[in-house]
User: What shape does this take?
Amino acid sequence: MNKKTGVLSSKMILCLLAVYVIWGSTYLGMKIATKVVPPFLLSSMRFLLAGSLLLLIGYLREKTWPERKQFLSACFIGVLLIGIGNTTVALAVHYMPSGIVALIVAAMPAWIMGMDWAFFSRKRPSGMTMLGIIVGFFGLFLLFNPFAHHEARQFPLWPVIVIVAGNICWAAGTLLVQRLPMPTQITSTAIQMLAGGVFSLLMSVVFEPGGFGTLSFMTTEAWQAFIYLVLIGSLVGYTSYSWLSKNAPPRLTATYAYINPIVALFLGWAIGHEAITSMVGFSAAVVICGVVLMTLGRKS
Assistant: This one.
């Protein structure tokens, strides 16, 4: 963005579109792939391959290797963001509609701001941000209200707890990455992916016995989803987000949080044949309004 004119550059627009569409589409990609491959194994395969490719790219472009503290910090962040944060999403979409999972993840800014206030900067959120948090969680309550009678609900509620745990880990990793010694950008992202992939692989060995046997049943659709997740979702999506985080205003970058669930809901309905009832639509609108308020109220 040109600071004088406020005009978005073509590269910034492309990166924003990439994060909007690609990250919004990965929910459906994981949904398709986990029909055959267990979630932990899928995440380990995805990020071990993507991380290996990115590590090679990083070494060729940056020509540096991290110090021990930097390497360990990147591994720790990778376990929080990818090993737990992203893998819990893969686990949840296996049992729940991908669009609804995206709505829960849309509340991520609330966890980041709340944890930053409580444990890091001690900076109290603005009134608009607090209102956004209340509105967002009210929307989620409408969607998952256990006291209401949901005749059309055909999925369990326990994955919601799993996603919340993953969101908390993602928020912690997001806040800690700015406070720990980290390698150069591409190499750091690659190490995070590899560490998260190794963690997911260990979880697969423990909780998914016989998971490797499912690879022989991979369909063409599942392979296409997997390749898309590796090359587009991981490499292009994360690279675009990393560039935006360093070159775009934080409020502009944060807009992905309320665009992603819209994309995920649409793709889940159009391609994944996921039903969008009136209650889901209304709850989604409330959640997205809450995230918009959080983003607008975010202090620079």
In short: The chain has one domain: 10-296. Confidence is low (pLDDT under 50) at residues 2-6.
